[in-house]
Design brief:
The complex is a heterotetramer, with two copies of chain A (304 residues) and two copies of chain B (247 residues). Chain A is an alpha/beta fold and 304 residues long. Chain A contains eleven helices and twelve strands. In chain A, helix 2 packs parallel to helix 3. The longest helix of chain A is centred in the middle third of the chain and has 13 residues. Classes of the chains: A alpha/beta (304), B alpha/beta (247).
Chain lengths: 304, 247, 304, 247
C-alpha cells in the first residue's frame, strides 16, 4: 500500500513506474471510458513485448499493435465498433511478417469470466458455454470441469491476473476511490484482478464528494496505485456526462489503419509528436462539439 | 425489408438481446408498432434502452441515458443470458451454413486466415443460451456455404449432434431472415430450409444465393411487403440518415 | 412474464399467489431492508413446511419458526445482531420437540456463493474456504472440485434456487424495476436465482424516476412477478434514507423470544391480531422517531 | 483495556475486516490516535466507514452514510477477502483452544447441542484469508478449553496440520488479546503461548483461565496500561454510553 499523498501523478510518471516491458496490460472499458491517453503514453514510452488483454481491442490496441508494443493479444471481439476492421491487427494476423502477433481468443463471456476469476483470486471460472463451437479447438486454455453435484461437464476458463490494469473513470479522490456511471463493462473485475491499478479520471474530487454517494464507488482506493487526472483522456471514446464518442474518428480510422504509412503518420503527429495529453488536445480543436449536454439525475437520501 | 420482417418476429413483452444495425432497427420498429413493451438488452449492460438517436455502436451513450438499468457485463452474461432470461437473440455473420452454424471468426484456416473477422463477441453464448435466435444475413454463395470455415456460434446440429445432447439451453436459430426470403429451421433434419419468399423473388433466386441444395417447404409462404407505416417509421423516424437502411 | 399492469398488488395477494406450502422462501436483506411485512403476512396466511433460507435468519425467521411456518432453515449466522440469541430457533435446535427444525449451515461466503451460483444458473460455485474446519463434516453439501489448470482442490457449494425471493427496496416502478442504495447484501443474486420474485417498496415511483438514474437499478422488472407498496415494511429493520433501525425492538426480542408464551402473545397482538401492515403500524406510534434525517447526495450527469 | 491493546496492534493504512463491539472500538481508537488512515471493511459491504455514532449492528446505517464505498457481499467475500486484500481480521468466539481454533457454532455435539451458538457468519473465511487475525476474548476455563467442541474458524494447526499444507492464504491468529494478558502464536509448536501480562496480573492468574498447561515465553513482556488519552477517547468520545466498554 503506497502512501496516500503520492498516488496522484502525471500520466508520464504513472506509465513509467507501473507499466514495464513484457507486462500483461489491460486497458478496459467497453466502448465507454477507453483510456486512449494511457495507451498513447505507453506508445510514447516505447514499451515492448506487452501482452495486451481486453474484450474489444478497439482503436487503442490497434494503435499499440501498429506501434509495435504488443507481443500478444488476448481478446473476444477485434473490430472497429460500428465501423469495420482493425487493420493493424488484421495485418499482423493475416500476413504475419517480422513481428508476429500471438493471439488468444475467447468470447465476451469467456473474457468476463477470466476477469471474474482473477478478481476473486480463483484459478478458474465455470461457465455454460463453447459446446458445439470451434473455439476450444483453437484455444486449449478453454477446458471443462465436472460438477460435483450433477456430474455434468461445464466449460472453464483460466483466471486472468494482469500485471497492470488501467481504468478511465469520471471521478476519483486522491486515494483512488473511483466512481463510474453509465456502462460499467468489466472494469471492476479487471482492477481487482490486477497486481497494479492506474486510475485515470476526468475530475479529481474531494474525498467528501465520494463519501456523499458511496454506492457509486466502483473501485476502492485500497487497490489503486496511481491516480492520473486527464480530462478528455478517453477521447475518441466517450465519458458519460462529460463528452460524446467522436464517431468521425472511428470512421476515419478505417482508412488510417488500412495503410501502414498513414498509421505511422498518425502516430508521428498525434502520439510521438506531442509530449502529453494536453498537447494532443490542442490538436483536436473540434472536440468541444462533443461536450455532453446536461441530464443530471436527482440525488438519493443517505440519511438515517 | 429485412428490418420490417425481423420486427414481425418479435412479440410484445419479450426480452431481446440486440446488436447494432439492422437488429436494433428491427427492435425499434417493433417497439413503435406491435410490441411497445419489448425489453432491449445490449451486451454492454444497458437494459430497456430507449435511445433518442440511432446508436452507432453497441456502447453508445444514448443507450444508457433513460434506460431502465445499467449493469456490469458479468451480470449480463451470467444473470441474464446464462440464467435463461433472454427470449430472442439476434445474430449475423460472414458465413451461415446449412445447419445454421455461424462464422464470425476467420475465412480460411484459423492459423493462417485469408480474412480475419472480429471473432465471437457475445455471439457464441447468445447462440447457446437465447431461447431462440434470429439470424439476419444477405444471401450469397460465399455467405451461405454448405459448411462454415469456423463454428463461432453453433446452429441446429453442431458437430453433427443435437443441441440437447450438447446441453444447449436455447432452441437455436429458428429463422434466417435474408434479403430475399425467410429460411426456417427444420426440426427433423436440423437443416435450414426455404419457408417464405419476398415479393418478386423466385426459388431459383434464393438457391443462387445458397451453397447447397436448398430444401423448400411444401407450400411456400409469401412475405408481405413492408406496410406504408413500417416504411415511414424506418425511413423518416428510425433511420433518417440511412445509416443502416441500405435498400 | 406476467402482464405489466397486474404486477402491483396488496401484500395479501402477493403472498397468496406466489408463496405456497412447502416452498423454499428467501426474504433477503443484510440487516438493512428486511421485509418483516412479508414475513408477517406469511405467518398470517399460515404457510407450512417452508424451507427458509437467508444468511442471517434475524428476528423475522425467528418469528416464522416460532409461528410454525418452517420445516427447515438454511443459514450462515443465526443470532440477534448486536443483541444476542434467536430463542425460537435455539429452542427448536437445542431441544427439538414435536416440530423439529432441520438445519443446513454454511458460512456467509458459502451462502453468498450459493446465491451467486443460483443467479448464474450454474449447479455449483467454487470458493477457497472450509479447509481445516468442521463445517463440511456436518454439511455434506459442501464438496470439492479439482481445478483443471492448477490441480488444486477448491471447496464448492451447490446452487440455491429458491421458489420465491422477497426483496424490500426503497423504490420501484410498476413493472418492478427496483432501486436500492445503502447496503446491498445479496438481494440481486437471490432475486436472479429465484423462480418467482416479490419486490416490496417504500415508494412506487414513475418509470421516469427509474430511467433518470439507471445505474441505481439493482433488480430489473423482467424478473419481478409482484410489486407491493408497503411503507415502513422493513420495520424493525431499516431502510436507508427512510427510517432507522428500531434497536429497542431488537433488544426487546431477547426477552420476548425467550418465552414461548410471550412470543405467542407477540404474534397474537402484532401479526394475527392485525389484518395488514397499516394496522400493524397503528400499533407502533413511536416509529416516527425513527424517520431518517436528510442527507441527500448530488446527482450525476447522464448527458452525452 | 482490551480495546486499547487491540488498537495498538493496528498499523496506519491497513485494511481491517471488523465486527461490532470491541473490535469496532479498537479500530476507532486506532483511527483517532496512531492510524488515521486505517480502512475499515464490514462484511455488510461498507468500506471506509466513519460512523457518526457507535454502530449497534454490523449493518448499521451509520456505517453507510459517509463511507467510501458500499458494495454487495459477493464483492466483499470474493474481491476483497478471498482476493487477499484484508490485512487484519478480528475474531472472537465462545471457545478458543490451544491451537487458536475458534468455535462459534455449538457447545456439545452438533446434532444435539447443549448451546446452539450463531454459527460462522463470515468468521470461517476471515480466519482463512485475512493476512493475520487478532482474537479478542475474555479468559476463563470454559472459554479456553484444550480443544474446541467444533472448529468454526481454523487456528494455527487445524486438524493437526499446518495452515500452508491446507493451502490457507492467511497467517492465522497471531495474537489473542484477553482481559488479563496477551497470548501469541508460537511458530514452532503451533500453540498459543503467554507473551505479555497486563499490570497487576500474574502467570497463575492467566493459567487459571486456560484449560491446558500454558507455555510462557521466556522474558514475559508487560503490557502498558491505557494512556490517559486512550481512556479519554474510549470513555468520552467512542463509547460514552458504555455499550461495549464493560470494564
Amino acid at each position: 500500500m503506497s502512501d496516500h499523498a503520492s498516488k496522484v501523478m502525471p500520466m508520464r510518471d504513472a506509465i513509467a513506474r507501473f507499466v514495464h516491458d513484457g507486462d500483461t496490460v489491460v486497458i478496459e472499458g467497453f466502448t465507454h471510458l477507453i483510456c486512449f491517453a494511457a495507451g498513447h503514453e505507453i506508445i510514447r514510452q516505447r514499451r515492448r513485448d506487452l501482452t495486451l488483454a481486453r474484450l474489444t481491442p478497439d482503436l487503442i490496441y490497434d494503435q499499440m499493435i501498429g506501434a509495435g508494443c504488443a507481443r500478444k493479444l488476448v481478446f473476444s471481439w477485434a473490430g472497429n465498433p460500428g465501423v469495420g476492421s482493425l487493420h493493424a491487427f488484421r495485418r499482423a494476423v493475416e500476413a504475419p511478417g517480422t513481428a508476429p502477433l500471438e493471439i488468444e481468443e475467447y468470447s465476451h463471456f469467456g473474457m468476463v469470466a477470466r476477469f471474474s476469476a482473477g478478481a476473486a483470486r480463483l484459478p478458474f471460472w465455470p461457465l455454460r458455454d463453447y459446446m458445439g463451437t470451434d473455439l476450444p479447438r483453437v484455444n486449449p486454455r478453454i477446458k471443462t470441469v465436472t460438477c460435483p453435484y450433477t456430474g455434468e461437464d461445464l466449460a472453464t476458463v483460466p483466471a486472468l491476473n494482469p500485471d497492470v490494469t488501467i481504468v478511465h473513470a469520471q471521478r476519483a479522490d486522491a486515494d483512488g476511490n473511483t466512481q463510474i456511471w453509465g456502462l460499467l463493462g468489466v472494469q471492476r473485475e479487471a482492477a481487482f484482478a490486477s497486481a497494479r491499478v492506474i486510475v485515470v479520471v476526468e475530475e479529481l474530487v474531494d474525498e467528501q464528494a465520494i463519501r456523499s454517494d458511496p454506492n457509486r464507488t466502483v473501485i476502492p482506493g485500497m487497490i489503486v496505485d496511481a491516480v492520473v487526472v486527464e480530462p478528455w483522456g478517453a477521447h475518441p471514446s466517450y465519458a458519460q456526462g462529460y463528452y460524446d464518442r467522436d464517431n468521425d474518428f472511428y470512421v476515419a480510422w478505417e482508412d488510417i489503419s488500412r495503410s501502414p504509412d498513414r498509421l505511422t503518420r498518425y502516430l508521428d503527429e498525434f502520439v510521438y509528436g506531442v509530449p502529453d495529453r494536453a498537447a494532443y488536445l490542442k490538436k483536436q480543436p473540434h472536440v468541444t462539439r462533443l461536450k455532453a449536454k446536461e441530464r443530471v439525475c436527482a440525488g438519493v437520501n443517505y440519511g438515517y | 425489408m429485412m428490418a420490417a420482417v425481423a420486427a414481425r418476429e418479435l412479440r410484445n413483452g419479450e426480452v431481446v438481446f440486440v446488436g447494432i444495425g439492422l437488429p436494433n432497427l428491427a427492435c425499434n420498429l417493433a417497439r413503435a408498432t406491435h410490441a411497445p413493451r419489448l425489453v432491449l438488452i445490449y451486451e454492454s449492460g444497458a437494459v430497456g434502452a430507449v435511445p433518442e438517436r440511432l446508436p452507432v455502436s453497441i456502447g453508445d451513450p444514448a443507450l444508457v441515458t433513460g434506460s431502465l438499468m445499467v449493469c456490469g457485463m458479468a451480470d449480463v452474461f451470467q444473470c441474464m443470458l446464462q440464467n435463461g432470461r433472454i427470449e430472442v437473440g439476434f445474430l449475423g455473420g460472414a458465413q451461415v451454413d446449412r445447419y445454421g452454424n455461424i462464422n464470425t471468426t476467420v475465412i480460411g484456416p484459423y492459423a493462417r486466415p485469408k480474412v480475419r473477422l472480429p471473432g465471437s463477441g457475445g455471439a457464441t453464448e447468445i447462440a447457446i443460451h437465447a431461447r431462440r435466435t434470429l439470424i439476419v444475413a444477405k444471401l450469397g454463395p460465399r455467405a451461405f456455404p454448405e459448411r462454415v470455415d469456423f463454428v463461432t456460434s453453433p446452429g441446429l446440429r453442431p458437430q453433427g449432434r443435437l443441441r440437447r445432447e450438447l446441453r444447449m439451453p436455447g432452441a437455436g436459430p429458428v429463422k434466417v431472415i435474408t434479403d430475399k426470403a425467410i429460411l426456417e429451421a427444420d426440426e427433423a433434419t436440423g437443416e435450414i430450409v426455404l419457408a417464405a419468399l419476398y415479393p418478386g423473388v423466385s426459388v431459383p433466386d434464393v438457391q443462387a444465393g445458397v451453397g447447397w441444395a436448398l430444401t423448400c417447404r411444401s407450400g411456400l409462404a409469401a412475405v408481405a411487403p413492408p406496410t406504408p407505416q413500417e416504411l415511414r417509421l424506418l425511413r423518416d423516424v428510425l433511420d433518417p440518415k440511412r445509416l443502416f437502411l441500405k435498400q
